[in-house]
Amino acid sequence: MRWRALLAVCGSLAFAGAASRADEPYRELYRPQLHFTPATQWMNDPNGMVYLDGEYHLFYQYHPFSNRWGPMHWGHALSRDLVHWQQLPIALYPDPHGAIFSGSAVFDRDNTSGLGTATRPPLVAVFAYHNHELERRGATEVESQGLAYSLDQGRSWSKYRGNPVLKNPGIRDFRDPKVFWYAPTRRWIMTLAAKDQVSFYSSRDLKDWRHESDFGRGWGAHGGVWECPDLIDMKVVDESTHRFVLLSSVNPGAPNGGSGTQYFVGQFDGHRFRPEGDAQRAATEARWLDYGSDDYAGVTWSGVPASDGRTLMLGWMSNWNYAQDVPTERWRSAMTLPRELSLHRDARGLALRSAPVAELKKLRVRSVAIPARTVDAPAELIDTALRGATLLELEVTLDLHEATNASLAFRNAQGEQAVLRVNRALQRYEFDRSASGETGFNAAFAGLQTAPMIGNSNLVRLHVFIDHSSVEIFINDGETVLTALVFPHLPYESMVLSADAGIEVTAGLVHELKSIWQAQ
Ligand code: FRU
Q1: CB 173 less than 6 A from any atom of ligand 1
Q2: 445 and 334 in one domain?
Q3: Number of neighbouring beta carbons within 10 Å of residue 164
Q4: What is the model's pLDDT at position 3?
Q5: Are strands 41-52 and 331-332 parallel, antiparallel or unpaired?
Q6: Is 205 one of the catalytic residues?
Q7: Residue 193 CA: which ligand 1 atom is closest?
Q8: Which of 356, 375, 399 is the last residue of a domain?
Q9: Using one digit for the tens of pLDDT, what is the confidence trace for 25-76?
Q10: What is d(CA 52, CA 247) in angstroms, rounded to the nearest whole number?
Q11: Which atom of ligand 1 is nearest the CA belonging to 128?
């Protein structure tokens, strides 16, 4: 069923045969094979992520008429496993109130909104309107919040007649509502980006919203506007306590330039978010979800059943610094791999970790062990049994011993390479894509990306996913994440480990993965 729908979109039997046929949909040069991309045209933020009856909905900022940003629609895709996606028709179109910017969706089980019935409760999307006409006229009040609802499992959507439900209070950047049900006060809570802060609103019915409080002054990074916030109730791993985690994307102002997502850990009482730690420290040491340049505007899925209990998210795998210039034509932009977030007490206090979702294991077609060994000269980690594999997952633990520098180069047959370095002298990880393939499309693309090392153990555990135009690196169980785009002219097929003194590979596996667009 899913496969047939996909073929309808692609219009051809594109995936038969092993050779890459660069002119065919989903087989083009750079087309991600492990990540969601729209068949054609421009995409940015994930929106309206909601789970209902076995289906994960993914809406996204979409411009159907161009491979560059323009008047935004909500594109729509659906998955039963977070891995394979079926494309659905565009869900939301611009209307006289404006284009449809980012937002969220909830299942209104008790029909608090009255937009469905008790027996047919609605899915409700809460999104930002952006009025380009008012913008052209120089108005401040260009953004407001609106509702749309679906009574047929998200297959078709109607706009609420009383839109907008939240008018602009005189703040130019006022958008990206993320809504959740807060049981103690029996109210919906909306977390909204307002300039370089977030505002919290509450409502009993999703229609009538009351301002509760603001958060952000003196906290975190303020290099640009805050966007796409999310307030998440999370259990602390191995403790019986829980905390609220506030995600807030900021652009520009990320640690490696341009767009990035910071977070705060604290308490929420239905009215106010109170972060832990002191503001002085928070302002100088913002916490980042991902240090790579290409993970932005990520928020979590709502409605994930308690029996599952995971905090699931994905982000837009690009950066506003160069997103519109990346060298793809038919489509532009992908989402990151879906990730599970968890909250741990470690050397940093309470901190988030990200892990690729377990469902991705089903893409493994072959797994080859990396024998334990000491590496004192450059060593290839890809066994000859995996020759020709271009979709790769690596799990390896390194003991650095006396080495101060170690590197892992992901390389193709043309010698193009993206390099992860562990630089112990500077206590940081470095990701270097200056020779990774096509880089000249934007001057901001090739710069070195760095992430601070946490603690000073000799052990580095790496979990890496290599797709045709991205590298995602999860270090030490997702304590540190680096997500980065790359545009090699041929896919990487080799991983070369080097160090300035003998290091030890203590355990390792390389998996060959299959394309998510291949028949299951
Ligand atoms: C973030 C963002 C959002 C906005 C959307 C517009 O990438 O700027 O704040 O709603 O993109 O496409």
Answers
A1: no
A2: no
A3: 17
A4: 40
A5: parallel
A6: no
A7: 9
A8: 356
A9: 899 999 999 999 999 999 999 999 999 999 999 999 999 999 999 999 999 9
A10: 23
A11: 10
